[in-house]
Amino acid sequence: xxxxxxxxxxxxxxxxxxxxxxxxxxxxxxxxxxxxxxxxxxxxxxxxxxxxxxxxxxxxxxxxxxxxxxxxxxxxxxxxxxxxxxxxxxxxxxxxxxxxxxxxxxxxxxxxxxxxxxxxxxxxxxxxxxxxxxxxxxxxxxxxxxxxxxxxxxxxxxxxxxxxxxxxxxxxxxxxxxxxxxxxxxxxxxxxxxxxxxxxxxxxxxxxxxxxxxxxxxxxxxxxxxxxxxxxxxxxxxxxxxxxxxxxxxxxxxxxxxxxxxxxxxxxxxxxxxxxxxxxxxxxxxxxxxxxxxxxxxxxxxxxxxxxxxxxxxxxxxxxxxxxxxxxxxxxxxxxxxxxxxxxxxxxxxxxxxxxxxxxxxxxxxxxxxxxxxxxxxxxxxxxxxxxxxxxxxxxxxxxxxxxxxxxxxxxxxxxxxxxxxxxxxxxxxxxxxxxxxxxxxxxxxxxxxxxxxxxxxxxxxxxxxxxxx
Length: 470
Ligand code: B12
Ligand code: SF4
What we know:
The chain is 39% helix and 15% strand. The protein has 470 residues and is α/β, with parallel strands linked by helices.
């Protein structure tokens, strides 16, 4: 059947906040740019507008991207689109990690990256020969990615519709943390995009702020210092308001690169401390060791370069007891961190950790994938009950994401900039913790009279998620 139109869908969850959505559909922008000019393509982010089921019909190819927590919503969309005669392809993290499950209800699945397979799927569909699965395990060289096309930029209008645009500069991570799925979707070899293409993309998209999708951008301080130097020198010439990226503690050992990063308008590193408990170091793939003295030193060195640090912490490792929440909070209070993310360890499909816990019969039964959102407990921890883990997490979330906590970390960060930059930096100084507050509100702990939390829960309850608490 000849192709009529391509729809690319990002399942929704949070709705909009102050007229903008948070999750710019960068993955879909890249995929839409691979659709030949002769074929009509439309991106639909459910957080911005609903899927137009009434207009779907035979000849339409609907591509849906889904992480694990979005897969039930993806299936719901699929069933309605199929009922209208459209054909549905599922790609992204969950289809890559659990292909057999997804291929039971999708017309076709894309496993892995899709720079080669997606154009093939479109062409096969057009000549009536779509296959049930397309697998790419080659970790394509990123030297020649097709640029994000003008028609896609016009349609998404990311600066108007989203709080933070995303950008990919490098991809992959050679570490092997037992709980990580990122390496299973991005590969273990660090791949780098040519600096001139990165600059071209930033300028053409007209973005002034961005969050890097790179899983471990900071590791390139050690792996590819010349590349980083070239990149930072190119970015410092651009009129950027600021940008953020994921890294590990070792960036603190590279003062010259830190200085260049600051000049390149970098605002903050999101650093995976993961745990303030040294008993968990075996699970942390060699990047963090639960060594608090080293954590304090590294934060100090990064701050000295004028860059902020957002600390990422995971709770529920086998070494954790109920005391972990108070001891981590004590560390956080003393640490001068500029933002804090706390998550519950989550055994995603395809991780060594999930395999082990299945063997030990530790997964909780009947947990829907929508609760694999890192805010809910989905397994039996080794030294706590599930209720203790959930209760400790809620206790800490309340302490961290109450307004006083958010305000004090935001103001601390603002003070790192000269007063003339405060207007430009105000958004990024407060937005990170505010975003985590919104994420935690999926656990329903915000007081009912809190306007913002209430709005977020309203979006969550509008049928976009299954709001079950553990
Ligand atoms: C950027 C990012 C985010 C952004 C959101 C980006 C977005 N618009 O979705 C933010 C910061 C908001 C975010 C939030 C979360 N994230 Co996140 N995120 C990422 C990250 C770092 C990069 C993804 C990305 O944009 N890459 C760049 C694009 C170009 O590549 P890509 O998405 O991989 O797409 C390629 C292929 O996958 C494929 N493909 C993808 N979709 C489709 C669809 C079709 C039809 C086809 C044909 C192909 C295809 O083709 C693309 C081109 O090759 C990944 C890690 C990773 N390396 O994947 C984690 C990751 C996806 N996130 C993860 C998680 C857990 C979360 C959170 C739950 C964390 C939290 N506690 O807040 C939330 C959930 C929010 C939500 N409602 O979905 C996990 C998912 C695990 C899983 N099994 O589901 C990952 C893998 C990281 C990890 N820790 O392991 N995330
Ligand atoms: S360092 Fe980060 S990206 Fe790399 S394996 Fe560990 S959790 Fe995954």
